[in-house]
# Entry
Amino acid sequence: MGRTQRALAVVAILLALAAVAVRWWRRPQIGRVQRGWTVASRKGCFTCHGPGGIRGMADPGHGLDEIPPFAGGLITMYARSEGEIREWILDGGARRISGTKAGKFFLERQPIKMPAYRGHLKSEEVDRLVDYINWLRQHPY
# Structure
């Protein structure tokens, strides 16, 4: 192996190490909100709650005409607190709503129901989803 080949091999190794280091360094820098977006994207939340969670898809037949987006509007009626956001994610509904006669009537007639993700999401994933939803509420489109 000649001197030029050794130098090229060293440069290639250093570039590979630099690429790995940059990738490792950037990963922890991703914020909680961005990780929440990633979880929502990977778990299919945007299928119903719309692109980025900002515009719910049509849900005719239950009276409100759309699945609530994450930001503003109907979501604030469905989930008033962080705890209720967690209930919706984990159980597919909030006790405050499902525990009333009117709430049960309303929820039972929804053509598209919110699935329960308890047992399907890690607690960190739920935390990041809540972070993302709260961020959207504070920064409406």
